[in-house]
Amino acid sequence: MSFLERAWHKRAGWLILLWPISVLFKALTKIRRLVQQPKVRPANLTAPLIIIGNISLGGTGKTPLLITLTQELQKQGFKPGIISRGYGGEAPSYPLAVDGESDVRQSGDEAFLIAEMTACPVYVDPDRCAALDALLSNEDVDVVLSDDGLQHYKLYRDLEIVVVDGERLFSNGFCMPAGPLRESISRLNEVQYIVVNGEPAREISQLKTASIMQLQPRSLINLVTGEKRPFAGAPFNMGNKLQAVSALGNPQRFYSLLERLPYQLEIFSFPDHHNFTAADFEQQGIDAHQPIVMTEKDAVKCRQFAKNNFWYLSVEVDLEGQFIERLIEDIRQASAL
Asked: Which domains, from first to last, does the chain contain?
């Protein structure tokens, strides 16, 4: 966590000095949205478009939710396609079609994991409108999900889903740079769905109609052998030290899950979307004889040099069934327009 992030979450008093800039940022954001966001559905948008995003900086759980919703739509007979910014990736050209054989350093970790987990067409481009055009031109899809993109206002959207971190919520409630918000909290009044990742730490009026999502740890899987062990109990030898390695926007939830296990835990945090190399582990003094545990999103970047002590934590999203049913009904209605 950076110095500024710590100040936001501790509600440091000196942040009030940045408040005038935050007011300007909020005003410019509203103007940009007013000017850029299409009011009429584009003729080339032949499938409903669902945005899954957030209003704050840092990880909130958007990607696990998107994967789960995509899999649920597939079960209902839909043919989903996905667009993404491709954070952490650098492709020689865009738009880039992503599948399980793609180079994760080109696609970015999230897009690669989504493609691998869903087997859906995935297109990435910093210009999400270009990614959308390429997806619709080249693939047979009847619904599109955007991984992030709430603030990519040039995208027309049929439905918006905002994911909120239940523990951190909105920190001090200020927009950047005095706080972590990309848009004001009042933006939640305009979206169709709010999903809170974990029980909210305190009551907020905009969250009264929110659905609760829980990330449940299921198993630990070895990157080299594919061996799977249940999360509960003692998957490693007693006396082992678990080395938690992450490159996440908000790694604390991952660390908290591992703290449930009866082992000493040592934490190694890297910048969000960091592209791991074998040298990273050597330079940080990570013990090659003790288990290394990562998220699945980080693990996809370590497959080429992983050793037998590399494991990743597999999680499942628990989401109330009513949310899925309502979303599918709204998608069917949007499809009929």
From this structure: 3-213+318-335 (3.40.50), 216-317 (3.40.50)
How far is the CA of 318 from the CAs of 48, 200, 223, 251, in angstroms? 25, 15, 25, 19
Q: 51: alpha, beta or left, given left = phi > 0 and alpha = psi -120 to 50?
A: beta
DSSP E strand stretches across 198-240: 211-222, 228-230
Q: In the predicted model, what is the mean pLDDT of residues 63-77?
A: 96
Lookup: tokens for 292 = 């290394």
Q: Does residue 253 sit in helix, strand or coil?
A: helix
Q: For residue 326, give the nearest of 186, 159, 206 by alpha carbon.
A: 159
Sole residue written with tokens 């848009």: 183
How many angstroms separate the CA atoms of 201 and 166, rounded?
A: 6
Helix (H, G, I), strand (E, B) or coil at 232: coil
Residue 205's pLDDT is 84
How many whole angstroms separate alpha carbon 161 and alpha carbon 124? 20
Cβ-proximal residues to 259 (8 Å cutoff; 6+ apart), any chain: 265
**Is 42 within 8 Å of 140 (Cβ atoms)?**
no
Rounded Cα distance between 322 and 246, Å, is 33
Residue 176: which of 56, 62, 33 has the closest Cα? 56
Q: Of 97, 162, 88, whose CA–CA distance to 132 is shortest?
A: 97
State residue 292 phi and psi, 5-degree precision: -110, 125
Q: What are the pLDDT digits (tens) for 207-228?
A: 988 999 999 999 999 999 999 9
pLDDT-derived band at 234, boundaries 50, 70, 90: low
Cβ neighbours, 10 Å, residue 292: 23
**Cα→Cα distances 216→14, 114, 164, Å:** 38, 18, 17
In angstroms, the first-to-last Cα distance of the chain is: 45
